[in-house]
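Re: folding output
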Amino acid sequence: MSEQGKKPIKITETVLRDAHQSLIATRMPTEFMLPIIDKMDKVGYHSVECWGGATFDASLRFLKEDPWDRLRKLRDGFKNTKLQMLFRGQNILGYRPYADDVVDYFVQKSISNGIDIIRIFDCLNDLRNLQEAVNATNRFKKQEGRGHAQVALSYTLGDAYTLEYWTDTAKKIEEMGADSICIKDMAGLLVPYKATELISAMKAATKLPIQLHTHYTSGVAGMTYLKAVEAGVDVIDTAMSPFSMGTSQPATEVMVETFRGTPYDTGFDQNLLADIADYFRPYQEECLKTGLLNPKVMGVNIKTLLYQVPGGMLSNLVSQLKEQNAEDKYYQVLEEVPRVRKDLGEPPLVTPSSQIVGTQAVFNVLMGERYKVATKETKGMLRGEYGQTVKPMSQEVIDKVIPGEKRITCRYADTIENELSKLEDEMKEWKQQDEDVLSYALFPQVATDFFKYRQAQQEKVDMTQADTKTGAYPV
């Protein structure tokens, strides 16, 4: 502690990643981020979360940007601030489990391109799916002196998720060799007094620093942070006000003001924060105008606590139902979600388990018969490909969906052969940098489309006029 009794709360700023992922489907372009970096770098943040999560997919797919290029530009600009990313354990940033050699290489390239802190989570909290990413980070740290492995626990509610469950898991995370723990409350389910209990118990169970990440969806997040800080949490995640609240995080300036003059005072300069907010505000207004920012996601939805559905999952459900002209089935689907979740062993709902449960709930309602149609992912989940759930899965559903099939009880990645060199072979004609193979590994089709676009830009080809069948490109 700096002075007697002082413990300034540390802050991770999410405006360059989770805030715009939660509110505008990760559509903020790199060029918009660069002019404000200099000011953000002066705030004194614990870290700036700016990469990983859905940014990788969205950059390639919608923004036609190279995510590696974004990372290098951000690293270039942030001279004094640590950069942080979100990493889905064995799934990296994709939607399937990868072989260990791909996980290792991705960790290595993320840190060498500028990431300091890797927040690693698994949608089932199956620690076996996190171990390789933690090991890879620690190996890099040993060689290069850089890299921090933070293991995030996906917070959820249910009979199995007792205080004892969380504290036991925290102890195991410490034994795994992680540098810190994050409680990742993606649906805003952690209410204030429960935060006091949880943080106090976690602090007693482990010596590792503890960070809390939540979303404002259910309306309690600011109060939850207040109680968590009083209970000794080390770091909280906040977003600059124009991209805060709703399905995003509490506002940075509000939390800074809340703790001013207390032992937790951040010491941040509100005038500097006001300048940064002024920079983002016109962009927020533009997003509202174009419809990219839907006012619906900016309010409070207390139903979150009933259905445990994170904000991003809600918008997915709405669009799936819209496509089927079945928007009137919205509440039926919401009620089906907890039932499907129970059938699948009560997993936390976070990517990719949220998509799996949500899509299956949509099918169950639209078909009029539960599990008449099961998605490929639901089958994979029932087979054990995503890992071990806290509660057993429904035997009845297993018998209906994958009758007689063998289920996996080991760590699924142990069944995957090394795949890096095979991936290299498949995409070598497009390779312009080592990192391209990783983009391809995660999103083969999307990355290939991007590589074609990149090449066309470099050769000044007009893709709209190109005759792709015969391969003739007018310049």
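--- second protein (sequence, then structure) ---
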Amino acid sequence: MILGVYWYFKFPEKLYQFRFFTFFEGRGGHADTPAGLIARVKVTDPEYIIQELEILKSRFQKTHLDIKISGQDMVISIDDHLLFDYHFQLVSEIDSILTEEQAVWLDDHTPFTTEHHQVFTPEREPFIPIEDKFIQITGSDFKKNNAENLSVRIDCNLPVSQKQPFIGDLKEICHNENLSVFYYYRQDYNDHCNLMLFFTNGRQKEDSFQNINIHSFGSHVRRMTEKYRLHFGHFGGLKYYPTNGPHIELITDKEYIINPISTL
């Protein structure tokens, strides 16, 4: 599973600029459509462009790339429900290739009948189901440059006296499980505390793409119930909902994860 900074509803403004590609936002809910980046261009030699894209795609194995050709006209698109920096870096390089080959931008009204269709499929990681019911996968509101963030959230409670060593053990789990961001909210009641824990990563780029084994992570957290008087869920009602925080233990790309967009 890939956790971290992504884009779906809005374009990463001020981070990327494309000459040929247009961003199409995803639609959640019942529509459930991926976000996408599409270029409609006229080129001198479509076959040469395909060759260049095939070489480029060998570096970006985790992306889907769709190419349609009609004479000298091409429609090049990439889409996903989570567009990471990794995807935008690929599109930046495609944009450079099209610029070097003096491609001409075509608008949406240009007639196009597909004569040849080529798809480069992504290299898929084996699907690992989330077996632990205490793990929630959550998104976020918009952060810097319209970024969102995909995180693991765990709600739990334990004695206040055990909170600090428990947090220390969770940091160690993060180091072992390829997680670079860990923060939490807390609320004490008597000698107990409710915790709302968040685990994620920062921006996912070509040279630092991070895969998380969610089953392994969940197993390590579950074993903490043998060491601490730990219970999943919150205790004491809404009055003791954890709102004190965020308390940051590990962080990278903070402005894309923690800070609300209104403070930037």
